[in-house]
Design a protein that fits this description.
Pfam families: CN_hydrolase
GO molecular function: acyltransferase activity; N-carbamoylputrescine amidase activity
Largest sheet: 6 strands, mixed
Distance between the termini: 45 Å
InterPro entries: Aliph_Amidase/BUP, C-N_Hydrolase, C-N_Hydrolase_sf
Shape: globular
Keywords: Acyltransferase, Hydrolase, Lipoprotein, Transferase
CATH architecture: 4-Layer Sandwich
Protein name: Apolipoprotein acyltransferase
Strand order of the largest sheet: 5-4-3-2-1-15
Helix content: 10-25%
Structural class: alpha/beta
Number of helices: 5
Length: about 300
């Protein structure tokens, strides 16, 4: 049974460092979030390294880790010590030649409440994720924890209403989106405001359409690890939205921050009673949604 109220947090960080340093940094920030009252805490996408998908380079596979190794051990111990739920996005080595962009959901006793593998994999300039990640095969999941029902999607999943809908229909009260998204510096002046606005608006729409809380945890900072390239300027702006799309907490574009907001299940139920979108869905008419295109 979920608590009627609980506090969630997203942590916005610069993660342009080596794995050992990023791990220490994230542990420290999770401690700070817990000290501020957060009960469910999410880190940004691929927390343990710089965003290596700016290039296609087989050497980057060395950044991956097997299930239940370094990241799980460290954050399992931390979750148990602090009595919090921690969402830990990491680069998973499943076997030789198969890798995933994944996230652990670790419960308050240090056990695994769930594992999510990113379902939608982009392939855009400087976001060459298809080279590294096999699409997820675990589906969209609600993860019951001792604090609440948690749904975790990852970054590119943000743009797909089907992913949010299915996760919410399975009982998730909050949709967490660990994220690594930013501007191409040479495009920022012309397109930056619209790109950032679209990113935020589509997730606020998921909150409204499903009557759920939405929490996005992004990176900050210019990551320019490749010579003679502009790199990516991660735009930060992490946020937490309520079930009517209202912004409960909003981060800056360029500072490391912790955002905390309260999940109120009585409010969520009231919103769904007054805006009964689930009641009025025409599930008898939605069969075509599974087609790639409708000619």
């Amino acid at each position: 049974m979920s608590n009627k109220k609980y506090k969630i947090a997203v942590i916005q960080l610069n993660l342009n460092d080596i794995a050992e340093n990023n791990l220490k940094k994230c542990i420290s920030w999770v401690r700070d979030a817990a000290a501020q009252g957060a009960e469910v805490i999410s880190l940004p996408e691929l927390y343990s390294s710089h965003y290596f998908c700016q290039s296609e380079d087989v050497d980057n596979f060395a950044l991956a880790e097997p299930l239940y190794s370094t990241s799980f051990t460290a954050f399992s111990e931390l979750a148990k010590e602090l009595g919090v739920v921690i969402i830990v996005p990491f680069f998973e080595k499943r076997m030789a030649g198969i890798y995933h962009n994944s996230a652990y959901i670790i419960d308050t006793d240090g056990t695994e409440a769930g594992l999510y593998r990113k379902m939608h994999i982009p392939d855009d300039p400087a976001f060459y994720e298809k080279f590294y990640f096999t699409p997820g095969d675990l589906g969209f999941k609600n993860n019951p924890t001792k604090k609440g029902n948690i749904g975790t999607l990852i970054c590119w999943d943000q743009w797909y209403p089907e992913a949010a809908r299915i996760t919410a229909l399975k009982g998730a009260e909050v949709l967490f989106y660990p994220t690594a998204i930013g501007w191409h510096p040479q495009e920022k002046e012309q397109y930056g405001e619209n790109q950032y606005g679209a990113w935020m608006n589509v997730m606020k729409g998921h909150a409204v359409a499903n009557g759920v809380y939405v929490a996005a945890a992004n990176r900050i900072g210019l990551e320019q690890y490749l010579p003679d390239t502009p790199g990516i300027e991660f735009w930060g702006a992490s946020f937490i939205a309520g079930p009517q799309g209202e912004i409960l907490a909003q981060a800056s574009h360029d500072k490391e921050e912790i955002l905390i907001a309260e999940v109120d299940l009585d409010l969520q139920e009231n919103v769904r009673q007054n805006w009964p979108f689930f009641r009025d869905r025409r599930i008898d008419a939605f069969g075509e949604i599974t087609k790639r295109a409708i000619n």
